[in-house]
């Protein structure tokens, strides 16, 4: 028997989520975000399964090349543009589109006028203060790009929301207004919305939406769950019970003995730990599903194992199934119990975890 820790990637759920995205923003093109190994789901399999996306967004050249090697022929956007001139030949050969957010990138394009023209998105910083030109510089940079022979026309116009997921609605509204002002009179497709923007800001759908986390089934809105937006979890993290112990009252469990049995009881050992990407800092009491029933996690998570309170199922045995997140236990819940986000949990599953792919339901067209 091999080690039972595994992720199952449900491609039918993925396609369903893309359909939901399209229903929410029916007039927008979809730039599906598959950076960081498709949020931990496997960039190649995810992009190949998303036949219905219009384009893919990645963080860097290497991720774009991975997609091309896998046979993806749709447009691919490098969301941070180029880092230096050495990347230009490959960017050209693979016809990658670039987000241009820094003056040095404009200069690099101006220094290579004889290149065959590249598609670009001009990124405007409307309040995130991470990447992009200030709104008052936007028109001038736009004109420089218009004059640049290495740039294909029309030029795209893009911004990114900092707080679309929170209740602070004025901030996002301010970003939308600033973007609209800064781009008045400039021709070209527009893109503002990430997942939170798609769900909470219909007025910002514009020409291209950029869904990431919602494609993978998690809610971008804090305190919410993917199911509330009719999304299905794409990653199922599971393992099995690898040992069962009947412990006496007062026994301390795990490293540091941080949890003590309040009575004589059954404790199960699950074959998964932080070395697989399960969060080490999860709270005592966080739910784990053993045979589809919730059991609280007890004691510290170790590298390869964690322990659960089996008082509600004393009949559980070695080999029984354990679900860490997936249908019935949203990754958002585990994130809340470990003071992080679904984004981080999904993205940091490690290499040694086995991967299975599930693709059993035909695409539901309604
Ligand atoms: C990652 C990313 C997205 C997707 O964000 P989600 O919150 O996962 O939907 C959209 N736009 C940009 C620029 C990004 O970097």
Brief digest:
By secondary structure, the protein is of the alpha/beta class.
Task: Indicate the topology.
Blueprint: E1 6-10, H1 11-24, E2 29-33, H2 35-40, H3 43-49, E3 55-58, H4 61-69, E4 76-78, H5 88-93, E5 97-100, H6 103-110, E6 120-123, H7 138-147, E7 156-158, H8 169-182, E8 190-191, H9 195-200, E9 208-209, E10 235-247, E11 252-253, E12 259-260, E13 265-270, E14 287-290, E15 293-298, E16 306-309, E17 321-325, H10 331-337, H11 342-347, E18 354-358
Parallel strand pairs: 1-18, 2-3, 2-9, 3-4, 4-5, 5-6, 6-7, 7-8
Antiparallel strand pairs: 1-10, 10-13, 10-17, 11-12, 13-16, 14-15, 14-17, 15-16
Bound molecules: pyridoxal-5'-phosphate (PLP).
Pyridoxal-5'-phosphate (PLP) binds next to helix 9.
Q: What's the end-to-end separation, in Å?
A: 42 Å
Small molecules held by this entry = pyridoxal-5'-phosphate
Total number of helical segments?
A: 11
Residues in helix, %:
25-40%
CATH superfamily of the largest domain: Alanine racemase
Number of DSSP-assigned strands: 18
CATH architecture assignment of the largest domain? Alpha-Beta Barrel
Mean pLDDT across residues: 96
Assembly level? single chain
Number of individual domains: 2
Broad shape: elongated
């Amino acid at each position: 028997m091999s080690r039972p820790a595994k992720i199952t990637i449900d491609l039918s759920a993925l396609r369903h989520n893309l359909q939901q995205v399209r229903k929410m923003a029916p007039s927008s093109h979809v730039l599906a975000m598959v950076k960081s190994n498709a949020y931990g789901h496997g960039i190649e399999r995810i992009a190949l399964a998303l036949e219905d996306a219009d384009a893919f967004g990645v963080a860097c050249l290497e991720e774009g090349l991975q997609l091309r090697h896998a046979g993806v022929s749709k447009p691919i956007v490098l969301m941070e543009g180029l880092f230096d001139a050495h990347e230009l030949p490959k960017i050209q050969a693979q016809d990658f589109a670039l987000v241009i957010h820094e003056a040095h990138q404009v200069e690099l394009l101006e220094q290579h006028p004889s290149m065959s023209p590249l598609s670009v998105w001009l990124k405007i910083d409307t309040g995130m203060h991470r990447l992009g030109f200030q709104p008052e510089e936007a028109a001038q940079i736009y004109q420089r790009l218009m004059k640049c022979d290495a740039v294909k026309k029309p030029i795209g116009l893009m911004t990114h929301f900092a707080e679309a997921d929170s209740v602070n609605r004025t901030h996002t509204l301010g970003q939308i207004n600033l973007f609209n002002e800064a781009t008045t009179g400039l021709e070209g497709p527009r893109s503002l919305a990430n997942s939170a923007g798609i769900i909470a800001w219909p007025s910002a759908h514009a020409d291209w939406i950029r869904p990431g986390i919602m494609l993978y089934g998690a809610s971008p809105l804090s305190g919410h769950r993917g199911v509330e937006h009719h999304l299905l979890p794409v990653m199922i993290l599971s393992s099995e019970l690898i040992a069962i112990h009947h412990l006496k009252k007062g026994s301390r469990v795990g490293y540091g003995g941080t949890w003590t049995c309040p009575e004589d009881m059954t404790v199960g050992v699950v074959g998964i730990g932080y070395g697989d990407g399960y969060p080490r800092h999860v709270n005592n009491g966080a739910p784990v599903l053993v045979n589809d029933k919730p059991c609280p996690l007890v004691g510290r998570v170790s590298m390869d194992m964690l322990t659960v309170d089996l008082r509600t199922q004393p009949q559980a045995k070695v080999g029984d199934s354990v679900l860490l997140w997936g249908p019935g236990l949203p990754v958002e819940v585990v994130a809340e119990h470990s003071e992080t986000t679904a984004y981080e949990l999904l993205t940091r599953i490690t290499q040694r975890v086995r991967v299975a792919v599930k693709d059993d339901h035909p695409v539901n067209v309604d």
